[in-house]
């Protein structure tokens, strides 16, 4: 019996082949096989390095279909090297080198590629000899020896969870870099391989023009970010909102938009939005004239009642008036300070408890019951309240989701009271803290926020472009 084993047939390649770079979100590219070139090259533009010096990354964009600049795929990868490369026409340039898997026929293997603008070239990729294995045979007279692909791959919408992971550059707008929520966001982003930068809102300034709106910070123009997470304090709401509008004008995804933040901070405006959306809330009254004090009190059902400053936060500027005379005194004092305030029905049956529902991306992801300390009616944790996890009803869940949607907030803390006639919204917070709710529920709220950001900014082809690609393929 012979022990002779027939060698495996060679892996045949033509002078051009269809390939895929799945790790970069590129399902189909037509590549030229060039054994005269040592290094492979990939078409890329808007090439931008980012991240720390000890772990540099690069992000770039690709037009995968020659002649179709309306189809753009956003990519990012870790930088392996930066090399001086001389092209076939004798021009020398410094290029970033990245690693990625290549799929060709029924094989997938890792290669290195350099990034360069090949927009004027017929092939979006050049496959050099360094990327070829020993059993590969190039047949110069043949084309596409392996299983072909086609550009219809860019017609299929990206299924959730199937887009390649890519490093994102994310800005957190916050004046409190040491705050728990900010630190959690930075730590969670780093754990996922993203680059998260904390930017002091008040140190930014803007160039507003017709063609290219810019944002500058400490004397330098800010780079392009994949996403912005606003953590804007109440004292800089107006300027922070203007800054977010500038990011939105640049096409950056902002977790919360400027309009929703501004509306949620103004309690009068917020309750008008809730009313318009037919969302349950305590009866609320507002007046400008001191002559209307008694009528104002009567509108919400007499004492006890709550008097709130329009821009109060963390329970500050919120007073419980237990008698009519006390209410008149508080209202008179607020008017004497020329402060804007509203008067609200006191939901006694809530018994000093409320529910904080954290809504991310239109889903309630965590809930806690906050309970006021003895002798206090405010359940805010900043006012000494305690917190514990709680199960909520379908009506409470739906109310929280509708409230966040009414303000068009991707991240919101919705505070509910359990009243006799159903859940009532006390407040919609556009910068909810993470410490209390993570501690009470044990949920990784920062991680859930990044899940939503990654879902929103994953590489995809706009629907209007999908239709045009389909027309070309058909």
Automatic annotation (TrEMBL):
GO terms for molecular function: ATP binding; metal ion binding; ribosomal S6-glutamic acid ligase activity. Residues 271-454 form the ATP-grasp domain. GO terms for biological process: SOS response; translation. SUPFAM superfamilies: Acid proteases, Glutathione synthetase ATP-binding domain-like. Keywords: ATP-binding, Ligase, Magnesium, Manganese, Metal-binding, Nucleotide-binding, Protein biosynthesis. This is Probable alpha-L-glutamate ligase. PROSITE patterns: ATP_GRASP (PS50975). GO terms for cellular component: cytoplasm. Pfam families: RimK, Rimk_N, Zn_protease. InterPro entries: Asp_endopeptidase, ATP-grasp, ATP-grasp_RimK-type, ATP_grasp_subdomain_1, Peptidase_aspartic_dom_sf, Rimk_N, Rp_bS6_RimK/Lys_biosynth_LsyX. Its cofactor is Mg(2+); Mn(2+). The lineage of its organism: Bacteria, Pseudomonadati, Pseudomonadota, Alphaproteobacteria, Rhodobacterales.
């Amino acid at each position: 019996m012979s022990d002779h084993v027939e060698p495996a047939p060679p892996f045949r390649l033509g002078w051009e082949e269809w390939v895929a770079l799945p790790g970069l979100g590129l399902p189909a590219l037509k590549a030229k096989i060039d054994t005269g070139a040592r290094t492979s090259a990939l078409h890329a533009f808007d090439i931008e390095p980012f991240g720390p010096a000890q772990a540099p990354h690069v992000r770039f964009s690709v037009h995968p279909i020659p002649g179709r600049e309306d189809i753009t795929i956003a990519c990012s990868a870790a930088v392996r090297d930066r090399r001086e490369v001389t092209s076939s026409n004798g021009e020398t340039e410094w290029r970033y080198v990245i690693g990625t898997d290549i799929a060709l026929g029924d094989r997938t293997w890792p290669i290195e590629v350099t990034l360069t603008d090949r927009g004027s070239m017929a092939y979006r990729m050049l496959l050099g000899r360094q990327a070829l294995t020993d059993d590969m045979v190039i047949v110069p007279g043949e084309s596409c020896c392996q299983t072909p692909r086609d550009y219809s791959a860019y017609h299929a919408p990206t299924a959730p969870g199937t887009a390649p992971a890519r490093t994102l550059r994310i800005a957190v707008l916050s004046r409190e870099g040491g705050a728990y929520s900010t630190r959690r966001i930075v730590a969670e982003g780093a754990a996922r391989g993203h680059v998260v930068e904390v930017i002091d809102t008040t140190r930014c300034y803007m160039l507003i023009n017709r063609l290219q709106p810019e944002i500058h910070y400490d004397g330098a123009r800010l780079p392009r970010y994949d996403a912005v997470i606003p953590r804007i304090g109440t004292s800089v709401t107006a300027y922070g909102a203007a800054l977010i509008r500038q990011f939105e004008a640049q096409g950056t995804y902002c977790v919360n938009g400027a309009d929703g933040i501004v509306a949620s901070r103004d309690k009068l405006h917020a309750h008008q939005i809730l009313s318009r959306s037919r969302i349950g809330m305590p009866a609320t009254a507002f007046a400008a004239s001191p002559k209307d004090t008694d009528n104002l009190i009567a509108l919400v059902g007499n004492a006890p009642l709550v008097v709130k400053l329009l821009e109060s936060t963390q329970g500050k500027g919120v007073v419980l008036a237990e008698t009519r005379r006390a209410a008149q005194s508080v209202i008179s004092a607020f008017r004497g300070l020329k402060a804007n305030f509203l008067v609200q029905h006191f939901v006694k049956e809530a018994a000093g408890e409320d529910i904080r529902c954290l809504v991310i991306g239109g889903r309630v992801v965590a809930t806690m019951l906050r309970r006021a300390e003895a002798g206090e009616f405010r359940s805010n944790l900043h006012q000494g309240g305690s917190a514990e996890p709680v199960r909520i009803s379908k009506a409470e869940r739906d109310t929280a989701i509708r409230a966040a949607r009414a303000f068009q907030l991707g991240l919101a803390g919705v505070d509910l009271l359990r009243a006799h006639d159903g859940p009532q919204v006390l407040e919609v917070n556009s910068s909810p803290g993470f410490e209390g709710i993570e501690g009470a529920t044990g949920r990784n709220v920062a991680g859930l926020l990044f899940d939503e950001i990654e879902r929103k900014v994953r590489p995809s082809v706009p629907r209007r472009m999908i239709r045009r690609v389909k027309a070309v393929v058909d």
